[in-house]
Amino acid sequence: MAVEIKPTRSELIKLKRRIELAKSGYNLLKKKRDGLILEFFEVLKKAKTVRKELVEEYKKALRKMNIARASESDLKIKALALGVVEKRDLKLEKKNIMGVVVPEIEYKYEEKGFFDRGYSIISSSSKIDEAAAAYNKVIHKIVKVAEIETSLKRLLQEIEKTKRRVNALDYVVIPSMEETKNFITFRLEEMERENIFRLKHIKA
Where are the domains of the chain? Predict the structure, then answer.
């Protein structure tokens, strides 16, 4: 890089400004990276909690389904399941975490009554209704897990991208510009000495 730049005072001034700008950008990116890492670990805590809750809800739902299967036939449960027509009330929004756009899913969870499930209450039983209610809770938790884990993935991608930029500035861009600055400074000093020597020679 040094040999491609003319060793002039104007180039040296420009280069010093570029170095200052690069160092300022480096400090800002470091702060962003550190902030993103803190946010990542906060979201990670939530992810662990929600995933644990999902596993617990799924275990409860599975137990209730096994009880329903023991008291009713699989064929009957499948027939009732086919009769369920349901629309999930999902609303997808976006939120910003330190410049990273992550999803925010609004899911209206409601406990459904016997008449709201879509199948006949005459052919159903309390065991089937309990299993259906339990799986409804599982769906709610799945939506929450999907939201949080997508946020985690996007935060991690941004952290990696920011780390690469920080490293590029720290190990490549700034050292290269500093080397060029030193080269120009050295050449200017050398040229100054040559001029002084030439003037002395002329006077002599």
Answer: 2-203
**Alpha carbons 134 and 204: distance in angstroms, whole number:** 103
> Are the CB atoms for 147 and 50 separated by under 8 Å?
no
Amino acid of residue 53: E
Q: Which fold has domain 2-203?
A: Helix Hairpins (1.10.287)
Task: Quickly tell me which residue has 């008291």 as its tokens.
Answer: 71
Buried b (16+ CB within 10 A) or exposed e, 164-173: ebbeebeeeb
- pLDDT tens string 179-190: 999 999 999 999
Centroid of chain to Cα 54: 22
In whole angstroms, how large is the CA radius of gyration of the chain? 33
Helix axes 9-71, 74-82, angle to 10 degrees: 130
| pLDDT tens by residue, 116-133 | 555 555 456 778 888 888
